[in-house]
Design brief:
Elements (H helix, E strand, L loop, with lengths): L16 H28 L1 H95 L4 H15 L4 E2 L8 E2 L1 H10 L9 H4 L4 E3 L9 E4 L7 E7 L2 E5 L6 E5 L7 E4 L2
Parallel strand pairs: 1-2
Antiparallel strand pairs: 3-8, 4-5, 4-8, 5-6, 6-7
Helix pairs in contact: 2-3, 3-4
Length: 264
């Protein structure tokens, strides 16, 4: 036996492999735990991350709210402008309607005034003609039968000067040629046929070179005449000429008659 066998060794006792493994395992576990904790750190920090990003979300929401408010304000402005335009259009339409009504009223008043003026003028002219006819009739009643009859016929005819020509007219203010001649001779009691053809053969045929006042002139053939008038002396005759002239005095030289008949 060695003399050093009982002297304690100053070396640390050798650790067994199992203990080393155990310690290594514990250390590894601790490191693993730290690693896991370290790896889990971001997960637990996620709320912090969201909190940091909140200002960005709030800024976007504010912009959206501001945009919405601006759009609402624009809509309100558009509605107000539309209301103003509608009100202006309604006012303009009402003004135009009043102006039209006023113009129509003035036009109607003017038309009534002109119609009244025309009616008064026609009444005055008619009264003047009636007075002239009455005077001529009174004068002719004092004449001799033959001379007086011709004078009465001519006086009646002259009283119709200016009257209108209307086909088929028999008076008192519009005539055709035969209607005027018939009415004129009726004032002295001579009943003539109504139309020119018959009047052209109603009396004694006389030549146009030997005419007397009161002779009936005709144009066309005897029995087929298309126009008649009455000779009033001095190479003139009076007739209801046509729609453009009416009742007028004309010269035979300008429109010579075809023939004449004498009934007085």
């Amino acid at each position: 036996m060695s003399h050093t066998a009982h002297i304690p060794s100053h070396r640390k006792p050798r650790r067994s492999s199992s203990k080393l493994a155990l310690r290594a395992g514990v250390a590894g576990g601790v490191l693993s735990t730290i690693a896991v904790a370290s790896g889990a750190g971001p997960a637990t920090a996620e709320p912090v991350t969201e909190t940091i990003e909140m200002p960005t979300l709030t800024s976007g929401l504010s912009a959206a709210v501001a945009q919405s408010a601006e759009a609402t304000s624009q809509v309100a402005l558009d509605l107000e402008l539309q209301a103003q335009e509608d009100a202006a259009a309604a006012k303009a339409a009402q003004t135009a309607k009043k102006a039209k009504a006023e113009a129509e009223r003035k036009a109607e008043a003017k038309e009534k005034a002109e119609a009244k003026k025309r009616a008064e003028a026609e009444a005055q002219e008619r009264a003047s003609r009636d007075s002239e006819r009455t005077t001529l009739s009174a004068k002719s009643s004092t004449s001799s039968n033959a001379t007086g009859s011709a004078a009465t016929v001519v006086a009646f005819l002259k009283a119709q000067l200016g009257d209108a020509y209307i086909m088929g007219g028999t008076g008192p203010n519009s005539w055709d040629c035969s209607g005027l001649v018939q009415a004129a001779f009726k004032t002295v009691g001579v009943d003539l046929p109504r139309v020119s053809e018959d009047q052209s053969v109603a009396g004694t045929q006389v030549g146009t070179s030997n005419l007397q006042i009161g002779d009936i002139l005709y144009w066309g053939g005897a029995g087929s005449a298309y126009h008649v008038g009455v000779y009033i002396g001095d190479g003139q005759y009076l007739d209801a000429a046509n729609p453009s002239k009416g009742v007028v005095i004309q010269d035979l030289s300008g429109y010579p008659a075809s023939g004449a008949v004498r009934v007085l």
